[in-house]
UniProtKB/TrEMBL annotation:
Family, per entry: Belongs to the FGGY kinase family.
Alphabetic keyword roster: ATP-binding, Disulfide bond, Kinase, Nucleotide-binding, Rhamnose metabolism, Transferase
A GO term for molecular function: rhamnulokinase activity
PANTHER family: L-RHAMNULOKINASE (PTHR10196:SF93), SUGAR KINASE (PTHR10196)
CDD domains, per the entry: ASKHA_NBD_FGGY_RhaB-like
Protein name per its UniProtKB record: Carbohydrate kinase
Renumbered residue ranges of the record's region Disordered: 484-505
Pfam families reported for this sequence: FGGY_C, FGGY_N
Domain of life: Bacteria
Gene Ontology biological process: glycerol metabolic process; rhamnose catabolic process
Feature: compositional bias, Low complexity: 495-505
One GO cellular component, as annotated: cytosol
Domain Carbohydrate kinase FGGY C-terminal, residue spans: 267-458
Species assigned in the record: Streptomyces abyssalis
């Protein structure tokens, strides 16, 4: 695979000559990639060197990640990256691998969309009520949080044989270095971390029956995470030593670190398979009202709190397109969006945060059924369904931004959209119309950029200041601003549609 075009415009050659190159391993739910970032004091140039599929596998009735294929993709990418000053790894959250006493993986990690966690929240609530669980961890209810996965595995032979638990990016890092650690931003998604102390919650672990001894020591973004093993150097052709640096290993933590904001009065929406919409705060919000609004307090780079709500995101449209293809009616993405853009706005909407859309399969039919139950018109064909999805996501973005401001007692004047949804111009415009705020779209590869930026800071290439990093990104990245237009519904129509969705929750 040939390298992709540069994701940014570099500054003059004098800056490029002094730039250091870093490798960002960025694993997403549908694909993984290895990217290199050339960073100097006033320059940043990102290049994709290898992309590979992430195909879950169902076996024995359980949905697994093919973690060995992902690791091979990482090795192939590092081979194509060439000499680098450091490597950083980020991925999705909550999932993990178990190691035996010899450090060998005990089976492929289970996918968070597997049904094994059904009923686990209720079991934990018998020993630790939801109000107390939130007061200790600040994490929103999601049925696949690590604490529930461990509850589902409690009586398994695999967990009984385990001597260590590594979250996905920590597992890849361990295979690269032989050094174990638990990076904090990702650990905060397990529902076992107290966001005030930024350490494990003994209270939650005891109530859930989770032995915290399984987790290696915590480390933070910027910490050293070992060096590439000799066998990895041989496999990749790299000359050692090559350090591995802990980054915001939860991909959303890295993505938020790369929001190119010019001031602190911003909301962000990290878009992709999920939409994660919220604010960057200095302290968690642990009120009962926050819990009822299903907001989460995950930890970010530089001791920040990512106060956000998880929304189903473009998974809804991705699953629709898979269904249409399986039914023999494949859709091309760009023509579909053009047709969707011409449809009547806000005709059919659903609650894009509803857990009923979590599982794969029959997504167009399930969306239609949700519209019917809510007394709204069933979308007409692929274009109508796509418009329903995008209008619904824009409303979910609006509700999350509104609620975050109210619950955190703060105000914003701009919404930054980062991640894969940046390429969806219709979604960006609908989000501006729904929120009634300008939307700044970009960068698309925010997680990889945040990954690279943390490495560059740790190695002294750029200043150790989040504001400096964000100004660098703002100055070097191509960004697009969408203003509320009224072309896709008036402010009153958006307010009415949002109120209807809120009332139906």
């Amino acid at each position: 695979m040939s390298p992709a075009p540069s994701a940014s415009t570099a500054h003059p050659a004098s800056s490029r000559r002094t730039a250091a190159r870093f490798a960002a391993v960025d694993l997403g739910a549908s694909s993984g990639r290895v990217m290199t970032g050339a960073v100097g004091p006033d320059s940043l140039e990102l290049r994709e060197v290898h992309r590979f599929p992430n195909r879950p596998v169902r076996t024995g009735g359980t949905l697994h990640w093919d973690i060995l294929a992902l690791h091979q993709g990482v090795l192939d990418g590092l081979r194509r990256a060439g000499p680098v000053a450091s490597v950083g790894v980020d991925s999705w959250a909550v999932d993990y691998g178990l190691l035996d006493a010899d450090g060998v993986l005990l089976g492929n990690p289970v996918h968070y969309r597997d049904a094994r966690t059904e009923g686990m929240a209720g079991r934990l609530a018998e020993t630790l009520p939801p109000q107390e669980l939130y007061a200790h961890t600040g994490l929103q209810y999601l049925p696949f949080n690590t604490v529930y996965q461990l509850g589902a595995a409690r009586d398994s032979a695999q967990l009984a044989a385990a001597r260590a638990l590594l979250l996905i990016p920590d597992l890849i890092s361990y295979w690269l270095t032989g050094v174990r650690g638990t990076e904090l931003t990702n650990a905060s998604t397990t529902q076992l971390i107290d966001p005030r102390t930024r350490d494990w919650s003994q209270t939650v672990a005891e109530a859930a029956g989770v032995p915290l001894s399984l987790f290696p020591p915590l480390r933070r973004p910027g910490d050293a995470a070992g060096e590439l093993l000799p066998e990895v150097l041989d496999e990749t052709g790299l000359d050692g030593p090559v350090p591995v640096t802990a980054v915001g290993s939860h991909d959303t933590a890295s993505a938020v670190a790369a929001v190119p904001a010019r001031s602190g009065r911003f909301a962000y929406i990290a878009t992709g398979t999920w939409s994660l919409a919220g604010l960057e705060l200095a302290e968690p919000v642990l009120t009962e009202e926050s819990r009822r609004a299903n907001f989460t307090n995950e930890l970010g780079v530089d001791g920040t709190v990512r106060y956000l709500r998880n929304i189903m995101g473009l998974w809804l449209l991705q699953e629709c397109m898979r269904s249409w293809e399986s039914a023999g009616s494949p859709q091309e993405f760009e023509p579909l969006l053009r047709d969707a853009g011409s449809r009547t706005p806000l005709r059919s909407v659903v609650d894009a945060g509803d857990p009923e859309f979590l599982a794969p399969g029959r997504m167009p039919q399930r969306i239609g059924e949700a519209c019917r139950r809510a007394g709204r018109p069933v979308p007409d064909g692929p274009a109508g369904t796509a418009r329903c999805v995008l209008d619904s996501l824009a409303i979910a973005h609006r509700l999350a931004v509104e609620d975050a401001q109210r619950l955190a007692d703060t105000e914003v004047d701009v919404v930054h959209v980062v991640g894969g949804g940046v390429h969806n111009e219709l979604l960006c415009q609908l989000t501006a119309d729904a929120c009634g705020l300008p939307v700044v779209a970009g960068p698309a590869e925010a997680a990889a950029l945040g990954n690279v930026a943390v490495q560059a800071r740790a190695h002294g290439v750029i200043g150790d200041d989040a504001g400096l990093v964000r100004r660098l990104l703002y100055d070097t990245l191509p960004l697009r601003t969408y203003q509320p237009s009224g072309d896709h519904g008036s402010p009153q129509e958006w307010a009415g549609a949002a109120a209807a969705v809120r009332a139906g929750r």
